[in-house]
Amino acid sequence: MIREGILDKVLYNVKKLIPKSVFNFFQPAYHSALAYAGAAYYGFPSKDLKVIAVTGTKGKSTVVFLISKILENAGEPVAAIGSLGFKIKGKEWPNTLKMTMPGRFRLQKFLHEAKKAGCKYVVLEVTSEGIKQKRHLGIQFDCAVFTNLHKEHIESHGSFEKYYQAKQELFNRTKSIHVINADDANTELFGNFSAEHKIFYGLKKGDLVADKIILTAEGMSFELYGTYFNTHLAGEFNVLNCLAALGVGVMYGMDLPSMKPALESVKLIPGRMEFLQREPFSVVVDYAHTPDSLRSVYETLRKSLEFPISNFQFPMKRKLICVLGAAGGGRDKWKRPEFGKIAAKYCDEIILTDEDPYDENPDEIINQIVSGFSSQTPISNFSRWQSHRGSSTESGQFSKILNRREAIKKALTLAEEGDTLVITGKGSETSMAVAGGKKIPWSDKEVVEELLTTKY
């Protein structure tokens, strides 16, 4: 298994002793040397594999998951790696590293193990941070997938331009197959790199364009060149994720009817719009780590509250109850007021809580979310929202409960028949990063299931 070890902790503490300016100067050469050393040590395993790399701001994990299912359904031996976890054929284990794309030696070791296990394909999430730290070097990519591009990791990269340039590096290095989202506003940044084979997908334009899209409370369906797909995945954004995966399948010689059972068999994506309960009220867990992701999740769930449910009669409007924190401590602080603005627009009840504070003051993180409230009037009855009082620190317009377990518990007590409770920010993660470089075990899903079992 690939987990954080003693070496990681030693390197973390050693780096803290080196002046930042000195480390930053030597960092690119240091990371490049490690990447090629790792590849050489394990015999450049990617040369004997078809490595499919998925990059973009949103949807990477879901697309990796769906591609893996399609390839497995076709009888291919597959390995996959990303924020949802690690997989080599039938063996799966969680990603506990707090990084989507592992370090150089770990990544090469994984590729080596996949090759040794007889895998033909490896589906890999490739992040801008991973490319910035040269983790991609020494890997021979066969296919690159672009999902979308939004503002993200600006503080780390220094600018939006440097952020997308890091992602562009993947397409510059991948010469065989490119699969591109044609609908994205930044398509031209990724669609113009040369490749032997290229396919575009979208809802409006491209080679693969979904038609007759139907969204329901239970999932969504669409038609593609006469093949109807009826999936359990909710939201229009998941249509795009399905199209990306189908595009990869097409590039590897699969037809749409043969891929249909694979997509329709997926009941859920762990931590991605994952319904833990639907009755008497819905409870959803989602990663939603960008303003656009949060908006998409809230919009989808808000629309689902308008769908009729035959088993219930609702005397009042159903509520959307939201539990959220913000971007991890010390990073992407610009997101926080945006999160507040979006939550105020879509949510009827808001509970702010801890997420991954690292070494930053959790109260200050939440205060920055709160700063976005004043610029947007909530969609719900404002007087009721103002009068709500939580069990912890309140402002009159929201509840602040730093203890995430207590925050979720409070949200469950607020939920009534027909309501939807959504908990964002952690998704399927299994730990929470706190001060001093420590990680404590944490799972939103496990906490919800435990509280539901014990009736809160």
UniProtKB/TrEMBL annotation:
GO terms for cellular component: cytoplasm. One of its GO terms (biological process) is peptidoglycan biosynthetic process. NCBIfam families: murE. One of its GO terms (molecular function) is ATP binding. Residues 54-248 form the Mur ligase central domain. Pathway: Cell wall biogenesis; peptidoglycan biosynthesis. It comes from Candidatus Yanofskybacteria bacterium RIFCSPHIGHO2_01_FULL_41_53. The lineage of its organism: Bacteria, Candidatus Yanofskyibacteriota. Belongs to the MurCDEF family. MurE subfamily. Residues 271-427 form the Mur ligase C-terminal domain. PROSITE patterns: FOLYLPOLYGLU_SYNT_1. It holds the Pfam family Mur_ligase_C. Keywords: ATP-binding, Cell cycle, Cell division, Cell shape, Cell wall biogenesis/degradation, Cytoplasm, Ligase, Nucleotide-binding, Peptidoglycan synthesis. It is found in: Cytoplasm. This is UDP-N-acetylmuramoyl-L-alanyl-D-glutamate--2, 6-diaminopimelate ligase.
